[in-house]
Hints:
Layout: E1 2-13, H1 17-25, H2 30-37, E2 40-51, E3 55-60, H3 66-73, E4 81-88, E5 91-94, H4 100-109, E6 111-115, H5 126-136, H6 141-154, H7 170-183, E7 188-192, H8 200-217, E8 220-225, H9 228-234, E9 237-242, E10 245-250, H10 252-257, H11 262-268, H12 279-282, E11 284-285, E12 291-292, E13 295-297, E14 303-307, E15 310-316, E16 319-321, E17 323-325, E18 340-344, H13 349-358, E19 363-367, E20 370-375, H14 377-384, H15 391-394
Parallel strand pairs: 3-8, 3-9, 6-7, 7-8, 17-18, 18-19
Antiparallel strand pairs: 1-2, 1-4, 4-5, 9-10, 11-20, 12-13, 13-14, 14-15, 15-16, 19-20
Bound molecules: adenosine-5'-triphosphate.
Amino acid sequence: MAVVTIENVDIVFGDNKAQTLPLMDKGHSRDEIIGMTGDVVGVQNASIEVNEGEICVLMGLSGSGKSTLLRAVNGLNKIARGRCLVRDGDNMVDMAKCDDATLRHMRTHRVSMVFQSFALMPWLTVLENVAFGLEMQGMPKTERLIKAREQLKMVSLDQWADKKPDELSGGMRQRVGLARAFAMDTDVLLMDEPFSALDPLIRTQLQDELIELQRRLNKTIIFVSHDLDEALKIGTKIAIMESAKIIQEDTPEQIVLNPATEYVENFVAHTNPLNVLLGNSLMTPLSELAIQNDKVIMENGMWLELTDEKLTSVQNLEGEVPTVSWTPNMVLDNIPNNAIFIVPANIAMRDAVNIRYHSKHFMVLEENEKCVGILNDHNFYHALLGKHFGRDTNAA
Ligand SMILES: Nc1ncnc2c1ncn2[C@@H]1O[C@H](COP(=O)(O)OP(=O)(O)OP(=O)(O)O)[C@@H](O)[C@H]1O
């Protein structure tokens, strides 16, 4: 179910929209338009739908329009054309067109925002900061303090409730910001680079906490980041922006496997594929292996015996090689390192590399009990070197 629907949204900063919009339609670039009218195109023809429970990451270089688009979702930025709809029960409210009372209702009950700068009030305690938005919602004092304390506990800061924000580290303050946003219990959370001011270790920890909180609370989150690794880690969907436009919207894996343009490819080239790619997009499929009489010839004098594409055994000249069916969280220490692992086709690359680190050999991928391919060192190096995109034309 769509909770936020952005439809053909244009946002223009400046006083000459009547001139600027037709120039945009004629295909003039942002730089040309600044020169011609003095207006800055913040967002051009952006459309995106975010469903309940999704984390949609808006990703792109500085100035690409991410924050401008995000701020349209709670009506902070005026839309020149298009619609930005947010769910309110059974209705979708157009944030650009609704009256002030509706906008206030939406901002208090439906959409809340977490900023990079924490935006905590220094004169209030940590607990009072978390409770502040609840006061705006009209919740009685005792109730809101109980709720705020619960939220602080969720981000492991309940011991810090009575401190002032300046007594906390940056990471802790950002957790207070998260607790405050989650306390509001709005359906939609807008997060504008909330972790970018933090050092990498704290940042990773907060990303993990956000994923864990989201697992429990199932909010609809729009998250701005200029870091593709962060986007790939937390996003269920990523929209990449360049020069005010969304140039690709896809799942994390598809962004990495099929970058739409060189701009996206450049981001992807600097990411860590371990967190994103799955075995079946890295494997050498069965169809590309040498098969003779139901025997698949492998490296090191081994072969796979198949019956109707189902693996029956792995052999070498000395006889049968032991096999192990891998399951998530399996402890590998006691498994002999000459065993061949049989793994699900959608195994995460990180797990597959861990298995390869333990075992000496390639692994066999299965789907619906049929062998669909193998993963060997070549497949891993291929992915680690970022050669998985353009593989049709450029395969290494
Ligand atoms: N209030 C404003 N008035 C005029 N121009 C603005 C305003 N806000 C944003 N812009 C312009 O809109 C464009 C997009 O800015 P925006 O802040 O959305 O980019 P961003 O992708 O979020 O960048 P960053 O990662 O640096 O925050 C920029 O050219 C910026 O100068």
